[in-house]
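User: Predict the full complex structure for these chains.
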Amino acid sequence: MSGSVSRSGSRPPTLGGRKERLDALAATAADGPGDAGVSLAASAWRRLRRNPVFLLGAAIIVLFVVVALLSPWLAAHDPTARLLEGQVSRARNEIPAAQEGFPLGGDQVGRDLLSRLLVGSQQTLMVGVFATVIGLAGGLLLGTVAGALGGWVDSLVMRVVDVMLSIPSLLLAFSIGALFPSPSQFTVILAVATVQIPIFARLLRGSMLAQRGSDHVLAARALGVRPRAIVFRHMLPNSLGPVIVQATLVLAVAIIDAAALSFLGLGNPDDSIPEWGQMLGGAQNVIDSHPNLAFWPAGCIIIVALGFTLVGESLRDALDPKNRR
Amino acid sequence: MLRYTLRRLLQLVGVVLVLSMLIFGWLRALPGGPVSALLGERGTEEARRELTAQLGLDQPIFVQYGKFLGRALSGDFGASTGVQPGDSAIEIFLQRFPATVELSVVAIVLAVLFGIPLGYLAARRRGGWLDNLGVVGSLVGVAVPVFFLAFLLKYLFAVQLGWLPASGRQTGGLDATRVTGFFVLDGLLTREWDAAADALAHLVLPAMALATIPFAVIFRITRAAVLDVLDEDYVRTAESKGLTTSVIRRRHVLRNAMLPVVTTIGLQTGALLAGAVLTEKVFAFPGLGEALALGFERRDYPVLQLMIIMAAMVYVLVNLVVDLSYAVIDPRVRTR
Amino acid sequence: MVNTRTAAWGLRRLATVGLAGAVALSMAACAQSQRGNTDGGAGGKVGGTLTFGSEGAPKLFDPFYATDGPTFRIAHQMFEGLTGFKPGTAEIAPALAEKWEHTPDGRTWTFQLRKGVRFHDGTEFDADAVCRNFKRMSGQTGAGQSSAVSQYWVDNFGGFADGAKPSLFRSCTPKDKNTAVIELTRSTSKFPGLLGLKPFVMQSPTALEKYDANNVRAQGDSFSFPEYALQHPTGTGAFKFGKYDKANNTIELVRFDDYWGGKTKLDKLVYKIIPDETARKQELQSGAIDGYDYPAPADWAQLEKDGFQVLKRPAFNIMYLGFTQKNNDKLRDLKVRQAIAHAVNREQLVKTQLPDRAQVASQFFPDAVDGYNKDLKAIPHDPEKARQLLAEAGATGLAVNFYWPSEVTRPYMPNPKDIFGAIKADLEKVGLKVNAVTKPWNGGYLEDVDQAKADLFLLGWTGDQNTPDNFIGTFFGDPTNRFHTGSASWGQQLSGELKAADEEPDAAKRTRMYQDLNKKLINEYLPAVPLSHSPPAVVFRKDVKGFTASPLTSTGESFAPVSKG
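Assistant: Here is the predicted structure of the three-chain assembly.
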């Protein structure tokens, strides 16, 4: 389950008791040998195509990615230019209102809010993708090593994972972010990603373990296939289903978590390149006098996070072998 | 069973020890520190050096850790330098833990109150509008950043409408008597009804913000579990035996579906008890989460060390209790 | 099978419920309400309770060992010094001493004490009590001598009675019941205003002894304080200590009925600790508190519109752009520092980024402080001149490390990020290359600045008392300060001049010396660029009356005359 920075308290924002779900997911992957995976995917896709929840989520994601890619051309103004600076006054808490050419008005220092929202999608997408990739890579390494080798390596890795999981996730992210001499977008990504590492690790390890005793692995071993080949050709591909589900969910969590870090003042302090979480975090002081400054980025985050969550959950359902019956 | 429990407890000791080491080194590796927080603008290189020495922060880290461990074994976890300066860290923990427990309990109760009936109904009418609405609704709850939701709730119900208090645990000047540290319970025990009601009112909004994720989880698990059970042979058998629907529901479906749900509730509670940093911060609720946030801001090592270790311990312990109760409830687990 | 399980379940559940009930009952039996029968007994709000939002928990209640604002704020209501401040100003005024005089050398001070003053424990305040207080303060031993514990004493008086380090304090003698004579080892501009600072207030000698007030011990990574400092602070002020409900983050003070200064209006003064700025504002808006300190300047207009009183205090602070002369050779050249001063558009900065009524600073302290030089004009904004000066110094295109702090707001610096942004743009306009470095305030910023890692940095100061020494003495007095003036050719000279001015006993002459020094600091030394003075505010509900905002902020504002409703 994706440990959510955003809910600090409740580590698993995605659904299910942590361990049970992880094990269930792992078991899904170990359910059958490789060729069954194909038919599983095929049948999953068949069901997904007709699932309105999945289609809604997918539509949101596609729109989000398209906007992110095209945003430099979509934005009417330079998101870093303080075009409306003359209308800003700290003392009187004046922030430029909506006006011609600036349909959403300006931000606290007079930059065009709409352009910042549009361009902000890029950074937000980046935070989500990079955090997920880093978390996945770390988890992949730990989980594969532990699951494939077993024995004391497994025990050691899993103790480390247990320790990481037992720290409130927000704090973990917090501390990782604070470890660096000065916070930046990179440290935010790293902080959010670190929280995900033990989760991916556990997921992969469980799946690997389940497969170690499975028929197709035993068969491969009996045939004299080299251990490395078994791991990479047979065990890893079979674990991909749950990993993809988890990764999709983590994308949403990462975006929310980055916003939470900004809210706590641990976000990227350099706001020349906009990012939604940072915009939301930065607007918290003016939320009651200028709610639009918070509502727009918050709305964007919620919609995009919902998109990823919908897709992730419907993927999970679709890949659940029980549903094939 | 006993051996299993002992082994788990022993593991817990190991986890705590490793964790304490990690956190100790980790905090001290962070830039800045309590010296900056204490001196502020008054800092000079000399004052800084002096205070660093006084706090023992100039010694090699393993020496510091050794001393910390020695004192910790005798129950002394050091005194706070920033959260409640001068108070012992353990005292702060003991004050704030009941607050977090109260909040978590109310949040879980809310989540259960809505999650289980809705999950059950959604499963009964799978694919219906209630089901789809519930699924999407629970996911929307997950997608909203909790601090934003907390803000919204506070702004609407506390600031604009004035129905509920905006922050804190209890109104100042009530002169409420403290017995257990659980304010609602204290009010009931001492028959200071107004104090109990006031404390309860302070819990509602943060608990609502906090309950969204447990609600979503419990809803989904209930729904999935009920679906699973409806599919089981014994339900079909019962149906074929001609038992009435309500009997089947009561005796077979709900009871058997409850197992994973109970587990989930336990795990969710464990996670909440670790301290809800964001929610507590928004509502200035003096629980563990707020202490963590403040401790970080002010680099309060003793408080951070203890809080993180305790949070981890609570989390691991609740997990253990859940596993054990699982074994008690379901004989199949025990025989395995 | 199913049925037996049900039965087992039912039994177990019954047992659990029964047990819980028994526990609750047994607890109820021993849980007695401890509410007093006086006002507030019925719960709910009483007419005379005012609740004030404080941004942090007080460290303790014995101000002698404190440095933090939350402690001083509360201490100010419970304690008084020999001297005090005229309400609404930083001028020294009589408090527990009605008048005083000093010998021409400024070393012997005779205080005439107010008569009929009692401490909260009923004991009498007299000359003997004064001297026992001084004996206590100067006689600290062990951990009590640590500058982290007795910081104000160490900063202002120096050493202790054991003579290990020189001390400003020599002796205190009760001449008669109401006359105390204090002897100093040298003259200083800080005296007698110093005695109005919260750490040096008069505390009940009986209570100090009874509750072991000096028993401070180093404990692990920190210090543990005695019972006196935690539960029994005993002063002469209008309010006495009630209780500190740590679980609920509230501190209650109650009216002291024998207060010499007349009847206090409020029955109770409650401080509620709300660390989060937005939460304080919303608590006020929802009516849970009656006022709070330091509302964000951006909220002032809104709060006023919502019908609250935003009381703006006269500015008693300074924000400056500091230079560290240690590492960047070019910064040792006065012309480069002057160029930077000319480059910064301070008028614009004050107008767009700082609160209402903020002013451009022409020198390092505000005009409320004696020794302010009215003839000194702020260095004008002149980018052309700046470029020219840089060229003359061969520093065109100079690269500087410019530090700014995140995760903090200070009364003199409400929004560091935007202030930094504006100054950075100004510097870049004259061709400087700015390498921006940001660190969290407690997470490396102060550390790096103090260790001279920054070429340029933003910092400031809020004054404790009305003496130039409290500002420029603190900044530049010790040559190993954070500006590293010691590494400049004039650093020692500046220290000497500051010391000479501080030790001048004749007030008029001293003022002139400081005026000259201010001029030199700007025209000849320029160790930093003074930027602005910003007025901090305090906000109350409309029905709170009688509060006088002071430039000294909460340490100069008494709740004795305040009434509610």
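The CA atoms of residues 242 and 253 of chain C lie 5 Å apart.
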